[in-house]
Amino acid sequence: MDTAVEMQNIVKKFGDFVANDGINLTVKKGEVHAILGENGAGKSTLMNILYGLYHPTSGKIFIDGKETVIGTPQRAIDLGIGMVHQHFMLIPPFTVTENIALGMEDTKGLVLDLKKSREKIVELSKKYGLAVDPDAKIEDISVGMQQRVEILKVLYRGAKTLILDEPTASLTPQEILELIDIIKSLTKDGKSVILITHKLKEIKACADSCTIIRHGKYINTVDVKTTSESELAAMMVGRDVSFSVEKEKREPGEVVLCVKDLCAKDYRKADILKSLCLDVRRGEIVGIAGVDGNGQSELVEILTGLKKAESGSVTILGKDAFNVTPRQSFDMGITSIPEDRQKHGLVLDFSVAENLILQNFENEPFSKNGILNEKNIESHANKLIEKFDIRPKDSAKKAAKTLSGGNQQKVIIAREVTNDSDLLIAVNPTRGLDVGAIEFVHRYLVEQRNKNKAVLLVSFELDEIMNLSDRIEVIFGGQITGEVMGEDADEKELGLLMAGGKKDE
Amino acid sequence: MSKKNGILSSNAFYTLLSIILGFIVGAILLSVAKINPLEAYRQLLKGIFGKPKFMIWCLIYAAPLIFTGLSVAFSFKTGVFNIGAEGQFVVGSLTACVIGILIKAPAIIHIPLCFIGAALAGGIWGAIVGLLKIKKGVNEVLSYIMFNWIAFYLSNFIVNLTVIHKESGGEATKDIADTARILAPKSIIEATGASAANWGFIIAVVFAIIVWFVINKTTLGFKLRAVGFSNTAAQYAGIDTGKSFLTAMAFSGALAGIGGAIQLMGMSGRISQFSGQEGYGFQGITVALIASSNPIACIFAGIFYGAMKYGGSKLSLVNAPSEVVDIIMGVIILFIAISSLFRSIFLSHGKKGAV
Questions:
Q1: Cα(A196)–Cα(A167) distance, integer angstroms
Q2: B54-317 is classed CATH 1.10.3470
Q3: Which of A326, A343, A345 sits opposite B238 (nearest CB)?
Q4: Residue A439 pLDDT exceeds 90
């Protein structure tokens, strides 16, 4: 097989920091090549070099066998390299069609011909099974559909080599299977796919070869078929990792959250929650399994005060919590790990220390009579940085935006777990995190449960739901359509329920 | 190299660079107008540093600009663009003027009364725009600009009311009572020869420190900054974002209003009928940008602008139009605005140098 992309001995330094230290990568035509590494290992840097966003400090790049200096993303696109970023690069008030066509719009004379672009997009999306509504605005569609738009955008530009950065992070199990099919049909066309992921299962499912990077250094390139998941994981983190979550059996206690007949409408005024009922008790983790867009986001928004419901009732430990404000929700004992950590979880320009007191800055010891106590704020931050292993260690005064995704998530978890409320809501808490960080997040969710708190877990990762939940509630069409006890959970059965099927009696 | 990059990424460096470039562009324009730029700049410097009296005048000019600068800087820190400082400044000075003329009281009561009135007027002016924004979703930039004009015509209307208007000749109000003035003691005025020497600059410095403290050290500042940086995350954390915007816009307006009172009580002593907007509020935007929205830096940026304004008024001595100063300030803002471009150019050069 010919090589599509070859990167030789790539070194990239930022000041004194070496992000890539002599990395080699050879991607053959028509193969799926996975790049595996923890957050901050240097995967994104390497791909940004390939995509022309960074210049390597040293090293050579060959595209289709020819040595090339890429330099700019435009050049990379011209060379047939397309990238789907982990954080979407879409313009929220524009429609799907406008976003995809942006920069290569079809024109009729001087006038935009979006109809033509729209046709092409519909065709592409049919061909690869990427369902999108070409006329919806990005700000109105789910994270999952935004991801599909990003993939379409790259295909629209005729990429020969696709870089997918954590492409499955927001997809449901079914969608992941579909994506794997898409990837396979792409490679059948002779296209190459570079897959950046932490998910070993997906690497096993669709990659041909895998390059492992650790702390900016090249570790190995292996044949996926002959390497086991645990071997891959061990190479990635440099130690053995446990996949399953240790959890002893517990009897759930009193009901903390009680939701009855909750009805709500979405942004289009369509019914999104239809008489939804749900209980969460002390000492249990309740997992909400469901395909994106079935009302789980709205449910969480209502509970945390970001959205108003139409009717129904919500109580926390017997107290009315229907249509509360975010502040009331917090004061009544709900804390949450939000789905979008950069939009809702953190004030990115604030320091880590400031983010850690975002709800508590008005309380002692962080402030008194309206004056902040910086000493206490900083020592609080340093305590949590130590306890939750937030890196870098001296990040108390650094802006949250300078941290890696995994460490940003640790900041949120440190804050929410320290709030120690009766109900912890976690929405896709491990999205985009690596194995080590996932282990960490899961440990803290189980710890909250063991401390006799109620935990509501909403996740698109079926594995996560099955590993952690004591009880799984399946949401479909704005209703809870099935309940499965954690130990009895079966992926096939859950998948069926999530797709609207009925539980076999 | 890291030290060099530290300089290359600091705001102060680019501000200084922009100021230098502003003067270079100003020199080019002067040359085009057949005026020797060196001669003009010499005159400008002489007009600023020539005598201690001149320097005092620069500070007199600086005081109201520091206030409007603080007003805009405060709004920037809290996620709002207060382009309405102009109108808040006008209603502030107008309120102080009415109180200064109509009320008779000893200075110890009269002066604070004028300031409180001015702060309230400016604050309310800003808060109305804030209410329109959070209740009705009206874009604040639009309503700020409209409120500038409402203030403008309101001022002209009140200036012409019989009780306020000067008894004989001139399109201006009566002089405010001496008990409402904040002039420096006679001995200082005589010693320096600056007839309008007043406490305005000292008050401005005190307020700059207060604003710095509020923004950085208080829970109120924490809340406002959180909303300014990310209103979604702030809302999620339980902060009432609407209330925060309203507070920020009222506070920002109050600062501009006090600036108007300082100008009136320290320098002019009365309000003349406007023929066009005076521009204190807009100049405040320049001050805030030069200061990178840092309240303490606003003091220095305000002095700089004040000195340029005062020194610029002497340019006519070399037949150069004083508007050259406005051009220089405009160019400086232009360069500050594109300084992120310089930054990336310099920093990427720095990186290449390291290869």
A1: 8
A2: yes
A3: A326
A4: no
